[in-house]
Amino acid sequence: MDDNNCGCWAVLKRGVCKPSAASRDSANTIPRTSLVYDTATETRYLNASNRELCPPNEAHLSSENPDPPTSDDKSPCQLLQFTFQELKSATGNFRPDSILGEGGFGYVFKGWIVENGTAPAKPGSGVTVAVKSLKPDGLQGHREWVAEVDFLGQLHHPNLVKLIGYCIEDDQRLLVYEFMTRGSLENHLFRRTIPLPWSNRIKIALGAAKGLAFLHGGPEPVIYRDFKTSNILLDSEYNAKLSDFGLAKAGPQGDKTHVSTRVVGTYGYAAPEYVMTGHLTSKSDVYSFGVVLLEVLTGRRSMDKKRPSGEQNLVTWARPYLADRRKLYQLVDPRLELNYSLKGVQKVSQLAHNCLHRDSKSRPTMDEVVKVLTPLQDLNDLAILTYHARLSQHGRRKKKPEGSQQLSNAHSKSIRDSPLNTGKQRCR
Known about the structure:
Mean pLDDT: 78
Largest sheet: 6 strands, mixed
């Protein structure tokens, strides 16, 4: 990764919660060797419904230790410790109209605090923050709250959401993050009527890739384990930052090839070999990145039961197109019309194909992914320009009829339906 985008690792002073030594995963939890799965096995996995990979009560009542990374740097992390009353006031008594979102963990509220302090501020003043509150009966419990504090308390990078502080008071568990103005990538891809421009999609994919590359390349690697569009947050300039580290896991060390752990995550994103063996590696995150890259390219969800049979799982539907360069453009989000880079689509499609390789060892590293995506920001070979150029050349070969008019509506439609955008109707 380039030096300008490197992050830093710091050690958080413990004392929030220390799981017992007996709670650590056994290396022999799932004594199966890793495998390269065949098409039939993959299809059975991919046709599963879009739900959490293991029952919530099992996932969150398990004794799994977040195993946060450590470092030789002994400088304490500067997390702020809030009182419950301070956060209650900062969010306007957790009023409903300040809710930014909801997940298994609980609600996320918008709030305001004074700069460089924990005191609440008037709405619109001070620093805007996002306050995540653990539900008392939440399915994602205290252990994941601890994982969030441990990991984000130590890891600092431009493409990771910043954890400002926390509150632990009686049975209250809250986390305070920097406020991300544009919300999640999921909202922009699937819930907005105006399509996300191609240039922004590339910028977001690159930023998210840099975040994962930082996690994998640190002094003690971290596997994110829950990479998906809803966990990629965007600031006002569409810079991507990874959020929600409740399922993050310390990666294998030394001569270990994987970490054996309980299978958790979301169907449609988790790598099949991890689901089938419980063996977790950094290449599990790479597979998840490949799925998100497909979502960015196609504008389709990883799992969508509203689509026809055969198109409900994005990876299953897209594989034949990824393997055939002549069909690549049928993958492109039809809402973009011809406003995308021809070379960019080729490179992104090939990269997604490599990230989704059935053999995890054949997938690229996230550093390699960053290298592929970086030059795609500067491409200006828009399909619409190429089409107009071809149209112009064709027109010069023919004598224009007297009194010809400017491009008509019918002509405009021919641009949208050109061979460059073949399969547009099918993609709807």
